[in-house]
Amino acid sequence: MRTLASLALVLSLAACGGSSTPAAQEPASTTSADEAPAPTADIVDTAVAAGSFTTLVAAVQAAGLVDTLKGEGPFTVFAPTDEAFAKLPAGTVEALLADPAALAAVLTYHVVPGKVTADAVVSLTSATTVQGADIAIDASSGVKINDAQVIQADVMATNGVIHVIDTVLLPPQ
């Protein structure tokens, strides 16, 4: 549980980063994405560094998915914050931690193969997760993944991208 929260925190903190260069100093043809420094940490380490994903990081560790998410990728992770995990019914996280197969299914339902940045996400209506089921994407008012609101997009990592969400995604049964 702490690991999941750590991952969520890392993803949130990484998402908060920005350029300190004033926009007036940017050449007209350069976008802020072009000026962003290259990421130096993988998805897991980025999540840990953020500090708002301790439950997510703990769950990733409990499910044995750390090496996978530290792998080459690329991956797109829709990362729920610690607050998102806190919204689950009492006992849900503990039950998942006690059932590694169910935990892995929930966690891999938050991962889409490839690097899908915000500009691509908004043109999609669904995506197939590593878990195998599709997630619904609605960009009509902000971006929602199923019932989760994306609260920070494009947290870049060396092996993919993290989009921070406010609700844990549960795969269809």
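Second entry:
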Amino acid sequence: MCTANILRLLAGISKDAIFSTRHFLSCGKRGAVDMAMHRLVKLGQIIRLVPGLFVKAGSKTPSVEEVSRAKARAFGKLISPHAGDTAVRLELTARVPGFPTFDTAGGGSLFFYQGVPITIKSTANRKLQLKDTEFGELVRAVWHNGREKFDRKAGLALHEAFKTFDKSLWPAHSQWMPAWINDRLF
């Protein structure tokens, strides 16, 4: 009965959508749902991406970021690109990027997708209040590097991004960033 209920709910999920075991907990006890999901994987009807996350057979392979966001969502979390990775991407630091890393408020985790370790690191909630805009990511990257590594290049990048930043969002952003960054914008 549990498997039939899961199949009924699966019919309403789009082909390439990532879904979690939690989507089906209304279909029966946790053990029964886990067993039914296991059977559906063995039958080739769904594909297990990482523990607890699946796609329908024939779906396109999701990206690391899509899987990471779905994993976080399954636990009621939001993630953002890790500030250190953003600093590397924006050439604010010379650190060699490692494996995919994301920031979240609350507890972090580590899981493997396609043999690659993905880390979700715990960070201060106020850093995540700076939305995933170009300016917000830049502020998080500068903040991650720290005041002692703030140089002319970082200052110019901040001022350039601030020029195109939607100023109506400024009150919401300025209250969350450290004073040493806020002061450099004025």
